[in-house]
Fold these 3 entries.
Entry 1:
Amino acid sequence: MMLELNTKRREVVDITEKVRKIVKDLSNGKSGIAVIFTYHTTTALTVNEAEEGLMDDIINALFSIVPKMEYKHNRIDNNAEAHIIASIVGNSVVVPVDNGEIVLGTWQRILFIELDGPRKRKIHVKFLNI
Ligand code: ZN
């Protein structure tokens, strides 16, 4: 099932409740795993804490660890850093599902990271009964 987001230039978005609802519908009370996959090359997914300050810190720290250099890709669309960060963080997360409910630790949330918005973004949520 597809999840769509309208994003800002750079931001971390907590998509946990949207994913929870989709997985509930897809799983029909069964247990297994959910795969959450972003279709884009300048976005990423992670599981972490949705504290407002931390969500800004994640974006700022990720951009600061990518070296300032002359990227070849920037001749095309000036977003090489966003592609590199997306590659480092990854484009999917897997979470366990018990009886139709996604299972997360107390402070864990599913976070979508926009690195080169604003854009309309698509995330695929899949449930596997295993
Ligand atoms: Zn690009």
Entry 2:
Amino acid sequence: MTGNRAVAYLKPGAVDVRATDYPTLELQDGPGVATENIGRKSRHGVILKVLATNICGSDQHMVRGRTTAPEGLVLGHEITGEVVERGPDVEFIEVGDVVSVPFNIACGRCRNCKERKTGICLNVNPARPGAAYGYVDMGGWVGGQAEYAMVPYADFNLLKFPDREEALEKLLDLTMLSDIFPTGFHGVVTSGAGVGSTVYVAGAGPVGLAAAASAQLLGAAVVIVGDLNTERLAQARSFGCETVDVSKGSIEEQIAEITGEPEVDAAVDAVGFEARAHGPQSQEAPATVLNSLMGVTRAGGALGIPGLYVTDDPGGVDEDAKSGTLKVRLGLGWAKSHSFATGQCPVMKYHRGLMQAIRHGRVHIAKAVNATVIGLDDAPRGYAEFDQGASRKYVLDPHGALQGVRPV
Ligand code: NAD
Ligand code: ZN
Ligand code: ZN
């Protein structure tokens, strides 16, 4: 059965938009679907008409061929939509609700969900704790860069926007609640930053910019964003951040020029395993950010690490990197009593509060990340431009719901 259209991973460097099955409340066999999940029923699920779905740096790892994602995998874990059908076991979510979908799929019933660690739910992915839509090794739940998508455990997972009209007006900001805003916020919270902190955020991609906006929201005294992409650094400056250009060498010296001292209270890694070495014409060096953050973070400080590190990387720079083994200078972190927080962001911990911050004008997240609306059919162009380092967060608009919607 067709009746849906979706963005699928084709091969390294290529995605296409194709006809796919209209979702049902049962997980069908397909590319990337874990064997034990085939035929899994979701009486607790809903079907969404997708109103906004974003392209993420996490998708790019797959599209660059840096994971074991299979051909045909339907992409997309950043989903905002309207409920068009609900399963018989859904009690509180109604048809017509406009909702944000946390990218983590969580059952709401296991030990980790009960402890609010929804990024490592024990019941949704037979291979390992934690699942997501449209992602390799994440259980095979079908991606939401599509016209329609299925969300299981709907009562637990979905954040319903309180006012439908307002939600549609603020959709371009609210769409950031499914991943990057909570993820950036989590990075900052786990870095220990708060009122008066000096914060360094490595990476000026959408997650880094969301972390920077979050640090401001949390009252940081100064937020410094580092990258080698000058356009992205300019974007960070556009909303009041200081910047360092890591291609110009030592970040300590550049940070000292800004704050008067070569260290910060708190640091966030919004880069991950495809990190480039510092200095001119640098090559990929996956442990660069982790090691440099230990270098610049004060003794007793913490590193928030939303940047993704993988267990298998076919394109790794050496044999160790191919299995996710990096040359991390842990002795330095140990000597400085650093704490580290890694892993998927448990979106549900933060999305309601951040929604309220958006609704009441406390934060301008769509502007901060330069949200850019394109049609579903333009997804291949969005992926290519994002891969080239465009300073934009691409938001796909499968049904035209974002036409005329402006950042708040
Ligand atoms: P992105 O690829 O757009 O941004 C990464 C940026 O890092 C790029 O601008 C790149 O130029 C820059 N960079 C490379 N080396 C650097 C260095 N040494 N220092 C500073 N900057 C450097 O990706 P994004 O969408 O912003 O996502 C960032 C990371 O967060 C990715 O690894 C993504 O997979 C991850 N992520 C994690 C979660 C989570 O739940 N933990 C959620 C979403 C995204
Ligand atoms: Zn994402
Ligand atoms: Zn669970």
Entry 3:
Amino acid sequence: MPKYKIAWLPGDGVGHDVMEAARIVLDRIGLNAEYIHGDIGWEFWRTEGDPLPERTKELLRKTDCALFGAITSKPKDEAARELVPELQGEGYVYVSPIVRLRQEFDLHTNLRPCKAYPGNPLNYRDDVDLVIFRENTEGLYVGLEWHPVPEGLWSAISAAHEKAARFAGTPRDEMAISVRLMTKFGCERIIRAAFEYAANKGYPTVTVVEKPNVLRETGGLMVRTAREAAADYPGVELWETNIDAMCMWLIKNPQDYGVLVAENMFGDIISDEAAQLVGGLGFACSGNIGDEYAVFEPTHGSAPKYAGQYKVNPTAMLLATRMMLDWLGETDAAAALESAVAGVIADGKVRTYDMGGDSSTLDVAEAVAERL
Ligand code: IPM
Ligand code: MG
């Protein structure tokens, strides 16, 4: 009996390429696991009208955790045009399956470390070591959206807030609403996760990234909650920074920051910026972590134009694999994998195109495996 059951979700685009790389490394480590393939991604949207079929959710319920490659994600109208003819006009609405996984499985903590590995020619600076805690289930991603805006909703909003009067003359189909819903529970859960991590790993600061001067209620709730939680962690200083200023400071002085905590959308934005500081999305991994289940993925998308070419950098995927090992409690294997990845980067002989080399995705995986 294998010790672990791992849902294997390549998704689409370069997801397949990088998952193959992950498998080379896992086989080398000899993890005692069964990897069970799950259908997810664009293909299943087009042909079944559901990029996250029920059978795949069933698989997740039966496994310990999942490793996930990448998925194509498109705005709703564009997505609808790509459905097979039989499904056109049947009311199918595309929602990103990774966002659904995070919400439906309550994978509340999106952990995104961005560390500059020595010798990476793409490092913006060599002393960057950021860890983003992105709230993964609510905020602006909550999915409460309307277009056109229903009459009943508009009258409730008008009755509740005088600011609605300004839009009284706007036709309901010429306005759209997306709700940014945050709960005290959700804010506290992500903020405490960030502080716990900072305290355990020796980061001196947690920066809460918000915009409470404008988003007074949701931003205010997040910052107030951060101040309350900070009182329980005397060894970690709380910094409060507005999202716009954060984007600037990450370019000006990224080395000054450690753990960052943010609402879903703001966390999404700073993740890509932070990734670029350490070499780009090819180096950024992401853990979607709940109380009982977790899904590990590279932060990058599916890059369809490179699909099947084994061209993209698998480092992000390998670092996601490392996070999975850590989460499973396989901490020695996790540490070995990280140092093997760091070794290949520092050595500089096996590099994908983004790093100026001509090695393939699988060459990099083999080079990492050789060091294990
Ligand atoms: C990410 C991605 C996703 C997100 C997309 C693919 C829906 O950008 O994981 O950061 O917005 O969360
Ligand atoms: Mg993103």
